[in-house]
């Protein structure tokens, strides 16, 4: 269970507060207007931003003092998810080890991860030789291989067209459910949320509301969501 | 995630000590010296005069050249812009040799004048020093002012075209305000560079009427062996540099390595034939001024290659070693110092001129080692220090880009410490590192500065050996050495720069 306990964080004049829990294995869309604090929420969970008050807990364990790499968190960023000087396989392998040389077992696992995102045989290519969608798949393969129970997506597919974005989200949902991962995915598209999310965290005006079941929320939108949907 | 803080502090302390200890030695020794004599004051006046004239002339000549480059597209334009960057890695003595071959007593310009019944030119003295400084700094000024021109939004020129403004009005409304912003920075940069001119003054100046303070330090060393006076002159040079730095700090200085000079702003006001002819004439003149001396180095140098005594080859070997030593040192210092603080430190370190540093190091090392024995390591170290700010100017923005683009990804993958450097930073920095190493190697190979203080007859670098050949009027051999040095500097730059560009397979 992901637990945000009386959390308050921000920079400058901006503050974001949150106080809720998310059950393990759920996929929650983080929805709201830009500047509302969606990325701030992810930054605090990932450990890039220290909260001013409150704690972040996973399965009862306080994550607040941990460095980003030590948290049970894998993250896909908006851009720069892959190192351009490394091949797809080398990028994926960073999930297992920072070393250049891999054991045969590690190499197999990298191959298998690429296979699961539909990129078998693409391991030797550099990011520049891959399409945007394929780059997203490589990043996803690496996130899977990290075997972290929490997956954070900060709009990594926003540069893709609607059809491809939907495809990628389906893949994320499929893989996350198979792994039992808990997902927080930032989006500003309500249709993304309806497509894959069990719950929606509405973030607006410095407050991240507790996750609400997607269908129920859209069936009867609260004022903040209605204002956002227009 | 950064380079372990300890390493950064160590590198910073090393640079600070390398500057402060010699300075302390200079101040300590200067304390016992007598007051400045009339010759010393003449050196101060000459330093200021030649630097002012060089800056004014370089910028004045650069304005029409930059304007022509800003508004004309022609075949060879990008080659010309590249050529404008070349003097940066051209060894000073080599350029002086090329200028002598054109403007000297026996140069091609003098011979033409003699054929026409005029007196041959005399290049020695103030005008020769200024000529050489303009040769080096006209290209720099042109690049700096070209940046100013290209920074004028193209929409303004379109607006001027729709209003039907004549060229004079466009100049007054758009170009003069830009020049008033860009020219002072260029003037100060060139003034500062010329203020601590040594090699040009050594080769083309000299005597009571054309000695810079840097040259006076050398003369106090070599001819009088008056260390107290050398130290006192070092303090004077330091005060001049500090004054110039204070002047520079009041102005927004232009960036040293401008990129993106390959654009041309479409201009509707400059289409007239007379203006086209004017631009073509200016660019031809500037290109000839830069290219003819270079061509003369090659033309005179090729036969000279067979006249070179064995010392020249030995000197070339020493120069190669000095260049590689400086490059390793500069890169090793630049990586941990690639931060704002590091850049400030490195820039303040070169405010202390090489001859001042050399004087201080001489004072420190003389009791423990023979100057000739330490000549090459000291030269390599001082050259590394002098190249450091340029290396940082190239490397730091790229490292910051790597941090801002991939910093969070590295943190989330646990790529920190040495893993960040070996797997991410160094591979991403190949190109700037190669470029910075190339600049350092070329600058160091071509430098004629501190080596002149330390060298004995046995050990000379190639620039010094070439200067000695010129002093002995062995012009064929000097011409060969000039060509060898030119080839070596360019080859070093090319090899490192290329090494950074080649993709890892």
UniProtKB/TrEMBL annotation, chain A:
Keywords: ATP-binding, Cell inner membrane, Cell membrane, Membrane, Nucleotide-binding, Translocase, Transport. Residues 2-230 form the ABC transporter domain. Coiled coil: none annotated. InterPro entries: AAA+_ATPase, ABC_SmlMolc_Importer, ABC_transporter-like_ATP-bd, P-loop_NTPase. Pfam families: ABC_tran. SMART domains: AAA. Gene3D superfamilies: P-loop containing nucleotide triphosphate hydrolases. GO terms for molecular function: ATP binding; ATP hydrolysis activity. SUPFAM superfamilies: P-loop containing nucleoside triphosphate hydrolases. The keyword Translocase applies. PANTHER family: SPERMIDINE/PUTRESCINE IMPORT ATP-BINDING PROTEIN POTA (PTHR42781), THIAMINE IMPORT ATP-BINDING PROTEIN THIQ (PTHR42781:SF1). This is Thiamine ABC transporter ATP-binding protein.
């Amino acid at each position: 269970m992901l637990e945000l306990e009386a959390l308050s964080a921000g920079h400058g004049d901006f503050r974001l507060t949150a106080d809720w829990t998310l059950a393990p294995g759920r996929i929650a869309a983080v929805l709201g207007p830009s500047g509302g604090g969606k990325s701030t929420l992810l930054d605090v969970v990932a450990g890039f931003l220290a909260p001013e008050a409150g704690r972040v807990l996973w399965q009862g364990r306080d994550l607040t003092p941990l460095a980003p790499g030590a948290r049970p968190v894998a993250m896909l960023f908006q851009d720069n998810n892959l190192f351009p000087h490394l091949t797809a396989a080398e990028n994926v392998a960073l999930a297992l080890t920072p070393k250049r040389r891999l054991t045969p077992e590690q190499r197999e696992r990298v191959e298998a991860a690429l296979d699961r995102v539909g990129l078998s045989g693409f391991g030797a290519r550099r990011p520049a030789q891959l399409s945007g969608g394929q780059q997203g798949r490589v990043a996803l393969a690496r996130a899977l291989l990290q075997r972290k129970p929490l997956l954070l997506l900060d709009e990594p597919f926003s540069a893709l067209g609607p059809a491809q974005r939907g495809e990628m989200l389906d893949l994320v949902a499929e893989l996350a459910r198979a792994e039992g991962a808990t997902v927080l995915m930032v989006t500003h598209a309500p249709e993304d949320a309806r497509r894959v999310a069990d719950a929606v965290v509405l973030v607006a005006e410095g407050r991240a509301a507790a996750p609400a079941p997607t269908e129920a929320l859209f069936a009867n939108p609260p004022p903040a969501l209605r204002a956002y949907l227009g | 995630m950064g380079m372990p803080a300890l390493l950064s502090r160590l590198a910073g302390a090393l640079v600070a000590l390398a500057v402060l200890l010699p300075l302390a030695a200079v101040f300590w020794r200067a304390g016992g010296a007598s007051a400045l004599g009339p010759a010393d004051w003449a050196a101060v006046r000459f330093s200021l005069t030649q630097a002012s004239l060089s800056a004014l002339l370089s910028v004045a000549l650069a304005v029409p050249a930059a304007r022509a480059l800003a508004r004309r597209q022609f075949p060879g334009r990008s080659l010309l812009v590249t050529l404008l960057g070349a003097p940066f890695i051209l060894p000073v003595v080599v350029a002086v040799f090329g200028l002598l071959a054109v403007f000297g007593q026996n140069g091609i310009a003098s011979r033409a004048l003699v054929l026409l019944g005029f007196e041959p030119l005399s290049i020695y003295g103030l005008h020769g020093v200024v000529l050489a400084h303009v040769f080096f700094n006209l290209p720099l000024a042109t690049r700096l002012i070209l940046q100013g021109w290209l920074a004028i939004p193209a929409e303004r020129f379109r607006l001027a075209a729709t209003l039907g403004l004549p060229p004079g009005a466009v100049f007054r409304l758009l170009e003069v305000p830009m020049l008033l912003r860009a020219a002072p920075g260029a003037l100060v940069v060139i003034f500062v560079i010329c203020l601590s001119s040594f090699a040009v003054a050594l080769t083309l100046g000299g005597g009571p009427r054309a000695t810079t303070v840097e040259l006076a330090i050398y003369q106090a060393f070599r001819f009088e062996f008056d260390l107290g006076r050398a130290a006192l002159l070092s303090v004077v040079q330091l005060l001049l540099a500090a004054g110039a730095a204070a002047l520079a700090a009041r102005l927004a200085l232009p960036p040293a390595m401008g990129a993106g000079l390959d654009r041309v702003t479409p201009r509707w006001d400059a289409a007239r034939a007379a203006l086209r002819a004017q631009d073509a004439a200016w660019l031809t003149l500037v290109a000839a001024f830069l290219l003819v001396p270079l061509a003369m180095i090659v033309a005179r140098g090729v036969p000279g290659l067979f006249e070179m005594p064995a010392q020249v080859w030995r000197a070339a070997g020493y120069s190669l070693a000095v260049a590689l030593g400086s490059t390793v040192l500069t890169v090793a210092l630049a990586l941990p110092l690639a931060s704002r603080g590091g850049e400030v430190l490195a820039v303040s370190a070169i405010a202390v001129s090489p001859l001042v540093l050399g004087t201080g190091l001489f004072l420190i090392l003389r009791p423990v080692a023979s100057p000739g024995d330490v000549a090459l390591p000291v030269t390599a170290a001082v050259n590394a220090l002098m190249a450091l700010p340029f290396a940082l100017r190239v490397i730091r923005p790229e490292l910051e880009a790597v941090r801002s683009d991939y910093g969070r990804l590295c943190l989330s993958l646990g790529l920190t410490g040495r893993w960040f450097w070996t797997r991410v930073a160094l591979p991403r920095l190949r190109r700037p590192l190669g470029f910075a190493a190339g600049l350092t190697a070329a600058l160091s190979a071509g430098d004629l500065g501190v080596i002149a203080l330390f060298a004995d007859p046995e050990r000379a670098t190639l620039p010094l050996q070439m200067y000695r050949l010129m002093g002995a009027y062995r012009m064929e051999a000097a011409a060969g050495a000039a060509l060898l040095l030119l080839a070596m500097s360019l080859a070093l730059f090319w090899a490192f720069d290329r090494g950074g560009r080649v993709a890892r397979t």
